[in-house]
């Protein structure tokens, strides 16, 4: 069996640290004029995205190519799934072509675990429902680690994750990654946008978290307000949401200048961030995107480079 | 397991000094010469050679390279980069002296040659090792050797500034 990455919890603190250290090596590759290494020659990585995604898919494909892996994209909209083929048959068919890793995004929580049961290839969860998005959590942790120079861990780092926690797999995975490294994570959201059971410290007053002098947090992680949720009347209106939970010009002016501002993208300008991110001294939003490639290179290498039998599902005949 | 010390700390120090002289002599000076230690075992030796060369003649750039991502046994055994490569000088046109502690099959050096080539096109590449223990599997030979040491292929050779130990 090959190694898969399904959730931060399964990866564990040691695994998170291993990936982040590997990401340093990959980031160095990305800084070179020719950012490509032969590490995964002959390996095939197949992206299977059942939900729309441009940035995550591009990020994974770039990562695979920089490691010299071959990439395939399974376009769900053009597939036989529309003819009624089951997910399992689809996965087994692609696996039979000799795929070493699947990168999968699915609207149903748990789908990557099922896929992992069906194939000997490595499976990387690129987002399942509201549940998990582990590579986002890892790239966020890597971004904080490099921006604050905290290679030893996040003990004492105060992080506020602000917004629609309930529907956000990003919030769950990034909180898990930050917590695994010892950070102090607070969820800031209206009660209607918190999950029914809250294991983390959660409050509904962003100003109290930032503090009167703006030095109450080291990292402000703004979640995307999913406009489609507005139909469910979970917040009265976007303007009020911004006034209470957005990064407004007043709050931006109050924040200590070294406070990191993070966002998983895409940003709803004027909603969760109502200032130009380019004018925020602590914004590391573009670094998050760049770091995503290095972290995904680390994840793919970690999944595919271990010393083990070939990972493809192709039947290998016994030689006489 | 039996251990045998084959070089003392003084032997290693003297060999380092001699190799530093040889590097300067072979290159008729230090014009364009840089040292690149192969992670992890070659890094301390590259630093030591760099210090000796600086003492004898002039300071030259010293970098390090991790060739893990270029190995030919990825997937056959656990391969994991140990450190981030550090090449902060221009490789194009330089004379690179690759430095490692032990030369064995030659596969690590092969990987390091590929890795260095991704930073640019050096004018030439030379190889300095503290111990050449034989058993080459590739057509690679060292230019500067601290000690030729016949070994059997299942022995372990540990090289540090504190000497060379076979176990």
Write structural notes for this entry:
Chain A folds into two domains: 140 residues, Aspartate/ornithine carbamoyltransferase (Rossmann fold), CATH 3.40.50.1370; 155 residues, Aspartate/ornithine carbamoyltransferase (Rossmann fold, 3-Layer(aba) Sandwich), CATH 3.40.50.1370. Chain A is built from ten helices and nine strands. Chain A has a five-stranded parallel beta sheet, with helices on one face. A four-stranded parallel beta sheet of chain A has the order 2-1-3-4, with helices on both faces. The relative contact order of chain A is 0.17. The C terminus of chain A is likely disordered. Classes of the chains: A alpha/beta (320), B alpha/beta (167). The interface between A and B is medium-sized, with 22 and 19 residues.
CATH fold type of the largest domain in chain A? Rossmann fold
What value does the Rg of chain B take, in angstroms?
15 Å
**pLDDT under 50 segments of chain B (min length 5)?**
none
Low-confidence stretches of chain A: 309-320
Distance, first to last CA of chain B: 7 Å
Detail the topology: elements first, then pairings.
The complex is a heterodimer of chains A (320) and B (167).
Chain A (H helix, E strand, L loop, with lengths): L7 H24 L12 E6 L5 H12 L3 E6 L11 H10 L4 E6 L4 H8 L3 E7 L5 H14 L10 E5 L6 H12 L3 E5 L12 E3 L2 H5 L8 E4 L15 H8 L3 H6 L5 E3 L22 H20 L16
Parallel strand pairs in A: 1-2, 1-3, 3-4, 5-6, 5-8, 6-7, 8-9
Helix pairs in contact in A: 1-5, 1-6, 1-10, 2-10, 5-6, 5-10
Chain B lengths: L3 E4 L1 H18 L6 E6 L2 H16 L5 E4 L29 E9 L3 H11 L6 E9 L11 E5 L8 E4 L2 E4 L1
Helix pairs in contact in B: 1-2
Question: Brief description of this entry?
Answer:
The complex is a heterodimer of chains A (320) and B (167). With 320 residues, chain A is an alpha/beta fold. Helices cover 37% and strands 14% of the residues of chain A.
